[in-house]
């Protein structure tokens, strides 16, 4: 963990807990009032749900289909019409097709990286350039901070809940590689995002388990040992999750949680999580809020009784309660990394739960009158290659490889009108041909939605001010 600078050393660990999380690194109340536009309640006027498809969804097989391209480009799926005249998407997204008046597409989001960790870094931090000394095999304290970390530092608290939450799990590859880009980096360990660890890391099953659990090579699989359980606010990286989970036992030991937490004085960062966990568990409404697996049957039918459905249902509940930013990682182990067996896996295990859960989220936001105040963005770390390929040593059927040059992003709500398409790609869906957008513009769109001023800054561990905006918001009205 990076050494604390003199400013931070002057705060005792107890004083650290007693100080506003916004004041420790120079974010006093005056600075925040200028940085973000708030309602009279102190909450941001709008919220953001970032649905992150780790692994990378192919644009040609979802939202930018090329039906007139050669066989080895267009693929097996057929396009279907949406409720918007002239707009077509994949046949395996029928529910979203019916709701196209609620969402729009950006078909020209582009960066230069074709490796997973690099793509995660730029798409989770919203910065197109990799940090100095970047290591794709592990997070480093010199990394860019994630948007979740920055927003968590800049937004005011929303009562019992953190202002920014990542769920249902940290992004960890099946090999045990912790994916960089998710953490606080140069902001310091005490600024790590709040990870709501509802789903424990597993190295076997991918996708929306248990209903749609699968393996990229073997097809459908069900691991009955997996559980979706909340709330468990995970400690920062470097704190052993198994050890802290065993001590905390948040659900089973509410009455005795304070003395258990008091035993864990290992870092200031962990104390931050302790304090938040105690605050959350002191509110009797929190248990009901997080208990999505026991939601009414009609809601579970709409969202799906699986990790995709539970996660997006929880994201809706959290933003309803005032959380400003929720990042939803749809898929462990880089689930959307469809190098092979792509078409049966997308058709049978990935697109159906994605279609249902995202449609249910948009329905609820619309029906509750909150869609205009909640921006929903769907993207991955990159798109996939125009040309279909086969790796016969690993897969029986073909797929597509990594492709940072372009991906399609879905945007809904937050004041954005539905039924729009911004940007275009060439005839093979390989490169932007108009309105090219970058991760910096993507991040600027999120920051603008949350009401941050264009001259807002975040601060690194040395208390240096870093401009929040590095790009222009994507021009969708």
From TrEMBL:
Chain segments annotated as transmembrane: none
InterPro entries: Alkaline_phosphatase_core_sf, DUF1501
Signal peptide: none
Pfam family, one: DUF1501
Source organism, top-level taxon: Bacteria
Annotated PANTHER family: BLL7424 PROTEIN, DUF1501 DOMAIN-CONTAINING PROTEIN
UniProt name for this protein: DUF1501 domain-containing protein
Organism lineage string: Bacteria, Pseudomonadati, Planctomycetota, Planctomycetia, Planctomycetales
